[in-house]
Amino acid sequence: MKIIVKENDIEGGAAAFKIFEKGIKNGAKVLGLATGSTPVTLYQNWVKSDLNCDNLTSINLDEYVGLKPDNPQSYHYFMQKHLFDKKPFKKSYVPDGLEATKDPQAAADHYNQIIKDNPIDIQLLGIGRNGHIAFNEPGSSFDTVTREVKLTDNTIKANSRFFDNIDEVPKSAICMGIANIMSAKKVVLMAFGKNKAHAIKEMIEGPVTEQVPASILQKHLDVVVIIDKAAASELDDKYKK
Ligand code: F6R
User: Which residues are catalytic?
Assistant: First the structure.
């Protein structure tokens, strides 16, 4: 893993954008994208750049089951607002939260086929405080592919900040599996803030274990981790150069 420590999320977003820009200039065509607070500064750099996205395909990590694309809490809506409205891609895939209400397995199978047909060149990730990647919570098998996952109480609580009240947070999501994520040629993981410091330490220095889903990234051959000083604060000094 290559670890880049920046002062804050603003600098981290700029550094992440440079990696995507370089990758795209070198031929990357399919990007795996993420939502949440972490990638916002990356997308801000993206929209103000002159990067042409007409030939790019994006595949998002996850979507809540039951939310329509025009629901402001849906990940469809998030991606439109933060990136695609200003930088439309040739094709953008986000799991279909409504199809998933009727037939979660069919929605998941459909998404796995999309990933198979469009192998991901660069996958963007955030990380949860418990080490989750996408909604692959501790205990998820490293063999998982896209499927319906039940959200844990902690994740529902953490994500309730985006909803009017906690009862509105969906109870499940359609989510890429760890095997899908590991199949990407390159992975860029971003994390900012003290509340991510323990997960970052476990991911980088801890054992590879399904109890810390992100720890599997130690086995991937091309991972760049972009963190700020607060998220790096529990790391051994040798990683902070
Ligand atoms: C987002 C996702 C999640 C987040 C993680 C961190 O598509 O799948 O795994 O990356 O929960 O969330 P934030 O960035 O809000 O701290």
Answer: 62, 130, 132, 137
Give tens-digit pLDDT for 154-171.
Answer: 889 988 988 999 999 999
Q: Quick one: residue 223, left, alpha or beta (phi over 0 = left, psi -120 to 50 = alpha)?
A: beta
Ligand 1 centre and the CA of 127: distance in Å? 6
- Tell whether pTM > 0.90: yes
Alpha carbons 68 and 75: distance in angstroms, whole number: 10
| Integer Cα distance of 221 and 218 in angstroms | 8
By DSSP bridging, strand 223-228 and strand 172-175 are unpaired
Q: CA separation (Å) from 55 to 3, 86, 87, 89, 166? A: 29, 15, 11, 7, 39
CA 147–ligand 1 middle distance (angstroms)? 17
Q: Which atom of ligand 1 is nearest to the CA of 125?
A: 10
Residues having CB within 6 Å of any atom of ligand 1: 34-38, 61-62, 126-128, 132-135
Number of residues in the chain: 241
Pairing assessment for the beta strands 57-60 and 91-93 based on DSSP bridges: parallel
Q: Which are the contacts of 163, defined by CB distance < 8 A and separation ≥ 6?
A: 73, 169
